[in-house]
Amino acid sequence: MKNPPGKIKAIVAYLTFIGLFIAISMNRDPKEEFATWHIKNMFGLLILLFVSVALQQYRIGFYVYYISLALWLFSLIMAIAGRKEGVPYLSEKFQQWFPFLG
C-alpha cells in the first residue's frame, strides 16, 4: 500500500509534538484508520520522550532518550513508506492504551 488514505496526516503527526496536535485536528472529520494508527503511535512515543526527560538526571534517561529518538525515526520512515508498522510490542500496546485518540 503506497499511498493509503491519511498518509499526509500520519506524516504530520511525527513532526514534533505540535504536528501531533495538528494531525489530531486534521483527522477529526474524515477519520482515516492509517492516520489514527500513527497518531496513537506518536502519542506513545511522545510519552516515552517525556519519561526520558524526567529521568535525565540518571544514566538510564540518556539511553531512554536515544531509544525513543530511534523509535520515532523508524516510525516516521514507516509512515512515509505507507506502512502501518511501528515499534514491536509497544505500537500494539499504544493502540490499546489510547482509544480516546481514535
Topology, element by element:
Layout: H1 7-13, H2 16-26, H3 33-54, H4 59-81, H5 90-97
Helix pairs in contact: 1-2, 1-3, 2-3, 3-4, 3-5
Write a structural description.
The chain has helices at residues 7-13, 16-26, 33-54, 59-81, 90-97. By secondary structure, the chain is mostly helical. It has one domain (7-101). It has 5 helices and no strands. α1 runs antiparallel to α2 (16-26), α1 packs parallel to α3 and α3 packs antiparallel against α4. Helices cover 70% and strands 0% of the residues. The two termini are 21 Å apart.
> Mind describing the biggest β-sheet?
none
Q: Which structural class should the secondary elements be placed in?
A: mainly alpha
Q: How many strand segments? A: 0
Helical residue percent band:
55-70%
Number of helices: 5
The value of Rg in angstroms is 13 Å
Q: Indicate the proportion of strand residues.
A: under 5%
Helix-strand pattern: HHHHH
How many structural domains can be distinguished in the coordinates?
1
| Mass-distribution shape | globular
- The overall average pLDDT, rounded, is 90
CA distance, first residue to last residue: 21 Å
Uncertain runs are: none
